């Protein structure tokens, strides 16, 4: 099967949908990638938008489900394909879908602290990571710190907790 690799930088535009397919779980969401360019007077002009439906399988289900939500700025890497279907009126439609291999927050737009007991951060002198994770969201001078939520990864143990909270 021919697979087209793609990296999409954008925002999650809907609530994550988690469901079971056979013995496996999948998390689905849509990402909008918006282009814009600088105008002659220094302002910004909006361009075209790309909407991609993203499917996360395997270990991504737990990490994405615990760390991301609607409005989160993300970078998604995966393989893109088209899905054909008939809508309610019987019209044949096509949508662009991606099977993600990696998903993470866009660190050019948010500040993230990783929560994992074995990970102590950039230097060992700063001590171990705390039990809360924070994201600072905002522009150059404005930052809003959002309280975190935690979920046990894969139900294994509290040693594999990961969490981030994003604004809705």
From TrEMBL:
The molecular function terms of the Gene Ontology recorded here are: single-stranded DNA binding
Per UniProt, what is one Pfam family of this protein?
Answer: SSB
Q: What InterPro entries does the annotation carry?
A: NA-bd_OB-fold, Primosome_PriB/ssb, ssDNA-bd
**GO biological process annotations for this chain's record?**
DNA replication
- Keyword terms, alphabetized: DNA-binding
Query: Which NCBIfam families has this protein been placed in?
Result: PRK05853.1
Q: What is this protein called?
A: Single-stranded DNA-binding protein
* Species this protein is from: Mycobacterium spongiae
């Amino acid at each position: 099967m021919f697979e087209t690799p793609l990296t999409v930088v954008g925002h999650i535009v809907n609530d994550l949908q988690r469901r079971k397919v056979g013995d496996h779980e999948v998390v689905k969401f849509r990402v909008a990638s918006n282009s814009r360019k600088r105008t002659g007077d220094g302002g910004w002009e909006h361009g075209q938008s790309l909407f991609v439906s993203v499917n996360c399988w395997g270990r991504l289900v737990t990490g994405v489900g615990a760390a991301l939500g609607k409005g989160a700025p993300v970078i998604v890497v995966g393989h893109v394909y088209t899905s054909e279907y008939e809508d309610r009126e019987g019209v044949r439609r096509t949508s662009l879908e991606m099977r993600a291999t990696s998903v993470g927050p866009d660190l050019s737009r948010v500040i993230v602290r990783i929560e994992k007991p074995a990970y102590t951060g950039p230097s060992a002198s700063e001590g171990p990571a705390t039990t809360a994770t924070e994201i600072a969201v905002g522009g150059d001078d404005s930052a809003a710190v959002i309280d975190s939520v935690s979920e046990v990864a894969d139900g294994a143990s509290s040693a594999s907790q990961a969490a981030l909270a994003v604004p809705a």
